[in-house]
Design goal:
With 203 residues, the chain is an alpha+beta fold. Helix content is 61%, strand content 22%. It has four helices and four strands. A four-stranded antiparallel sheet has the order 1-2-4-3, covered by helices on one side. It is rod-shaped, with a radius of gyration of 49 Å.
């Protein structure tokens, strides 16, 4: 009977398998490191690209903000110019307001009433007058309210009874009144006329 010692052969086989396993593990580790490195590099490239885009967007935003500031400044200048132009136009148009004031008062004062004094401050007018009766004063207010587009917001301040001497022996009882109203600008009267609306006072 022949006896063969297989221990060295088995040991060598195990050693080869162990070495092969180690080589496989080392290879897998290297491949894994390469893949991880590639992924890391790709992410770094993406981050760098995104940072460049963010920097570009930041520059564009700053440029737009500067343009917005310039536009806002230009709009303010335009608004200021328009306000000055409007003020000049109002001054030119308002030069004729005293003429309209006197003309309209002559038309709107009913018989039996007359103005004693007028005081204008800007668009506001204060008037003192006399009337034969309280009904005449009420008619003055109605006329200023409904019959002319040049006056608005008439308000009766005071009405009192007063004796006026016609002759040394004849005295007549009259109603003395004070009222305020607003003059309407020429531009507003034109707007009312252009719109075709019936002129009504704003109370």
């Amino acid at each position: 009977m022949i006896l063969i010692n297989l221990l060295p052969h088995r040991e060598a086989s195990r050693k080869r398998r162990r070495e092969a396993f180690q080589m496989t593990m080392v290879g897998s580790l290297v491949v894994g490191l390469l893949i991880a490195g590639a992924i890391y590099w790709w992410y770094q490239m993406m981050i760098a690209d995104q940072q460049q885009q963010n920097a570009l967007l930041t520059r564009e935003i700053k440029a737009l903000e500067e343009q917005i500031k310039e536009i806002a400044s230009i709009e303010q200048e335009i608004a200021a110019l328009q306000a000055r132009q409007k003020a000049v136009e109002n001054l030119q148009a308002d030069r004729n307001l005293p003429v309209h004031l006197l003309t309209q008062l002559v038309k709107q004062m009913p018989d039996g009433s007359y103005a004693i004094s007028l005081k204008q401050s800007g668009q506001s007018v204060s008037m003192a007058g006399m009337a034969q009766s309280n009904e005449r004063v009420a008619e003055v207010l109605r006329n200023l309210t409904d019959n002319t587009p040049w006056f608005s917001k008439p308000q009766l301040v005071e009405i009192t009874s007063k004796n006026v001497p016609l002759t040394p022996r004849d005295q007549r009882k009259v109603s003395a009144f004070n009222l305020n109203f607003q003059l309407v600008r020429v531009s507003d009267v034109k707007k009312t006329a252009d719109s075709g609306a019936a002129p009504k006072a704003r109370n």
